[in-house]
Amino acid sequence: MDINVKKYFITILFTIILSFFFNIDVYGSQTIKAEDIYLIPGGETIGIELQTNVIVVDTYNVRNNQKTINPAKDAGIQSGDMILYIDGKKINNIEDIKSELAKYKNIHDRQMNIIIKRNNKLLSKKMYPTRTNNNVISLGIYLRDNIMGIGTLTFIYDDTNFGALGHQIQDKNIPDMQLYKTNGHIKKAEVTSINKSIRGNPGEKRATFDKKSIGTINTNSITGIYGKVDKNSFKNKKKLKIATQDKIQLGHAKILTVINKHKVEAFDVKIIETFKQNQKDIKGIKLKITDERLLNKTGGIIQGMSGSPIIQNNRIIGAVTHVLVDDTTIGYGVYIEFMLEDMGIDIQD
Predict the structure, then answer these.
(1) Which of 123, 151, 320, 321 falls between 20 and 30 A from 106, CA-CA?
(2) What is the pLDDT of residue 12?
(3) CA-CA distances (angstroms) from residue 114 to 108, 119, 161, 294?
(4) What is the mean pLDDT of the chain?
């Protein structure tokens, strides 16, 4: 059997703005006064493992006797296609496809019936699994069924409900991610090194994941990821109130993030502009890194820092989401009320 499974380790990007993903409320909608909301601030680096449907990344040529063929391409399979059924069997992951392909080991010249989803439409395709010169059965197809990366925990609400990242998870190999299912896990992560930002090239955190999951992801929305977290994973942290966009002041603030191992630290930033937003967006706060120690270590905002909570006057006002490529000391953040809204909490002033 030959299914080429590409496993990519990707850091969370700051520069992607995406349309809405399907939303599963953590609680169900509720309205709470802003002054009554208390959040445990995050700042911890987290590893993210997100399961998706089986997605076609690309196709490739295989050798069959003296011929070079591309069975998937010949069948009309394209990058971004979601594989739903093979010969009537529902496909949940890559292992399901391997199992179906194994049935063709001793069968020659039989079509495989495949149901795919493309641009939200169901399509039926027929493909001939091909025996290669190495005597393996191949579809000539690169597949994936997960996304992995690192980001930053933004907050915990009511002890067990978390919000992180400040923007949607996306992968360049999976277009229109809102069409796909999402579930997954978060894990504690240790920052092992920093690739420093320079003008024109944002840097990144490099980290390793723990094996044990500390939470489950059930929502991947425009403003971040949300789900349930083990209440024992983040103990003994002081809760903070929030401030909505109309309460934010230009000037001094802090962000919480990790630049070494597991240690969450506060770093100085300056709020240089805010944008009044009546509709959900992830670039409402414009900020500049002013902390010399952070600048010396990271060069500014780096990948993996998205979700770092922004604190002003001892209140959580938002989370880091973007970096300006031409000046990596400057970036943007999402308002905290938009993250809470995607968690199912409507804020009343």
Answers:
(1) 123
(2) 35
(3) 17, 16, 39, 52
(4) 88
DSSP 206: E
Give, in order, the Cα–Cα distances in Å from 231 to each of 27, 160, 165, 189, 235: 16, 5, 19, 17, 7
Contacts of 311 (CB under 8 A, 6+ apart): 41, 240, 253, 254, 255, 256, 266, 317
Q: Residue 1 pLDDT more than 50?
A: no
User: Using one digit for the tens of pLDDT, what is the confidence trace for 14-70?
Assistant: 322 222 233 223 345 689 999 999 999 999 999 999 888 899 999 999 988 888 999
pTM (predicted TM-score): 0.85
Bridge partners (DSSP) of residue 62 are 69
Catalytic residues: 167, 291, 306
Q: From CA 183, how far away is CA 152, in angstroms rounded?
A: 18
CA distance 130 to 112: 11
DSSP-assigned beta bridge partners for residue 71: none
Residue 231's pLDDT is 80
Which residues sit opposite 217 in a β-bridge? 184, 227
Report whether 47 contacts 209 (CB < 8 A). Answer: yes
Scored b (16 or more CB within 10 A) or e, 186-221 reads: bbbbbbeebbbbeeeebbbbbbebeeebbbebbbbb
Q: Which residue has the higher pLDDT, 182 or 91?
A: 91
**Which class for 242: exposed (0-12), middle (13-18), buried (19 or more C-beta within 10 A)?**
buried
Domains and CATH numbers, the chain: 2-52+146-348 (2.40.10.120), 56-142 (2.30.42.10)
Q: How far apart are CA 349 and CA 344, in angstroms?
A: 16
- Helix, coil or strand: residue 244: coil
